[in-house]
Design brief:
The structure is a single chain. The protein is mainly alpha-helical. Helices cover 50% and strands 0% of the residues. It has helices at residues 3-27, 57-61, 71-97, 113-123. The longest helix has 27 residues, at 71-97. The chain is flat. The chain starts with a helix and ends in a 14-residue tail after the last helix.
Length: 137
């Protein structure tokens, strides 16, 4: 086909597409509808949540119920508190004397087998790697 005919056809296609776009914009409804909404139906008024509260775990699962402790549990807690208070008093007395407190104060430390193995491995140099000759390509 000659070039002027191709230009005329291309111009016709462009004019038709622009005209279709313009007609689509001109005839489009001013406001869209939600699915199930009838054309021309009045919209409901906007609701405002007056008593809105955020969802928290307490509202979802209910308030945490505090169970009362039995006599045995109370006695165990009291004994634990007394033991902690005695340990704190002993540590304070030792600190005043100048002795170390805490884990350093323990005289019998457990044997460190893993540490010894690691020291033996790091002390000895690794054996030399065998030389591998690369083939010539």
């Amino acid at each position: 086909m000659p070039r002027p005919v191709l230009q005329l056809v291309a111009t016709g296609i462009v004019v038709a597409s622009l005209g279709a776009f313009a007609l689509g914009v001109a005839t489009a409804p001013s406001r869209g509808r939600l699915p199930g909404e009838r054309p021309g139906a009045q919209t409901g008024e906007v609701l405002e949540a007056v008593e809105a509260q955020p969802l928290v775990d307490e509202r979802i699962q209910g308030a945490a119920v505090q169970e009362e402790l039995t006599e045995e549990e109370k006695a165990a807690l009291e004994a634990e508190k007394k033991a902690k208070a005695e340990a704190a008093a002993l540590a304070k007395a030792e600190a005043e004397k100048g002795a170390p407190a805490g884990p350093e104060a323990v005289t019998a430390a457990p044997a460190d087998k893993i540490g010894e193995v690691i020291q033996q491995q790091t002390a000895a140099p690794p054996p030399p790697a065998p030389k591998v000759e690369e083939p010539v390509f």
